[in-house]
């Protein structure tokens, strides 16, 4: 079976805006998918529907064969990383990263062990006691990534997570994401309007325009030179 299926998914906002139209996609476990297209084409709306943050107007989304509407939020194997980081400014880095596990009620010893491991992996141990508002964009992005990964999701949803970073850092985090894909077998759905990013990361690129899927292809097929 597939990890994630979108079947004729549509979204019309309350104000009548048709944001997503007949979106079909089947994603295998461990695949890295990018949604690529200009601002306003429906990428974020689609991601938010997969995350369960936005209702679906028509069609259906299946996560590991189960309809998303029938999966209670705490049983969804998805985790979302936001464009604007959405970190808690008054909490330390360590607490920000552990918050999701705290909410889930994971016992303290297990939670702390997991948090320390992911802080280590993302090179955040040295700044673990600091508050995010004192840190750089790149550091904040790694914290957001740590927070998404610490819950060990099967499907990681990322909304333009690298947009605010300089080129070197972007490259470093791209490499980290590919390593995580290979070592942990996580399925990635990644929203971007940057062609270079989609090319560097994805197994398949979903090209979107005005709410519709225009094409779904591996990068080398999409950008093969004549
Ligand atoms: P993006 O980077 O995804 O294009 P935007 O800056 O367009 O983000 O949107 C930021 C926020 O505003 C999002 O939460 C989005 O849902 C909301 N939003 C975008 N367009 C509209 C709209 N026409 N009416 C109401 N809310 C909107
Ligand atoms: P993208 O992520 O590709 O920039 P979005 O999914 O944010 O695109 O937006 C798709 C369309 O839906 C746009 O026309 C946007 O203005 C509209 N939109 C987004 N959020 C809302 C909202 N909360 N209410 C109404 N319209 C919205």
Automatic annotation (TrEMBL):
The keyword Signal does not apply. It is a peripheral membrane protein. GO terms for molecular function: ABC-type transporter activity; ATP binding; ATP hydrolysis activity. GO terms for cellular component: ATP-binding cassette (ABC) transporter complex. It comes from the Bacteria. It is found in: Cell inner membrane. The keyword ATP-binding applies. Keywords: ATP-binding, Nucleotide-binding, Transport. Residues 4-226 form the ABC transporter domain. Belongs to the ABC transporter superfamily. This is Putative spermidine/putrescine transport system ATP-binding protein/spermidine/putrescine transport system ATP-binding protein. It comes from Tepidamorphus gemmatus. The chain holds residues 2 to 227 of 368 of the full protein.
């Amino acid at each position: 079976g597939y990890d994630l299926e979108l079947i004729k998914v549509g979204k019309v906002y309350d104000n009548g805006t048709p944001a997503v139209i007949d979106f079909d996609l089947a994603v295998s476990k461990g695949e890295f998918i990018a949604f690529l297209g200009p601002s306003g084409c429906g990428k974020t709306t689609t991601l938010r529907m997969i995350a369960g943050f936005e209702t679906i107007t028509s069609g259906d989304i299946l996560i590991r064969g189960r309809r998303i509407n029938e999966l209670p939020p705490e049983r969804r194997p998805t985790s979302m990383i936001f464009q604007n980081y959405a970190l808690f400014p008054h909490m330390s880095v360590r607490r920000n990263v552990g918050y999701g596990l705290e909410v889930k009620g994971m016992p303290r010893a297990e939670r702390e062990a997991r948090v320390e491991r992911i802080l280590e992996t993302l090179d955040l141990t040295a700044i673990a006691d600091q508050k995010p508002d004192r840190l750089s964009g790149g550091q904040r992005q790694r914290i957001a990534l740590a927070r998404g990964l610490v819950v060990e999701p099967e499907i990681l949803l990322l909304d333009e997570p690298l947009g605010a970073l300089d080129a070197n850092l972007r490259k470093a985090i791209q490499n980290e994401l590919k390593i995580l894909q290979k070592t942990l077998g996580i399925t990635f759905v990644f929203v971007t309007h940057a062609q270079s990013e989609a090319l560097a990361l994805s197994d398949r690129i979903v090209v979107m325009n005005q709410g519709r899927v225009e094409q779904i292809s591996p990068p080398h097929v999409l950008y093969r030179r004549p």
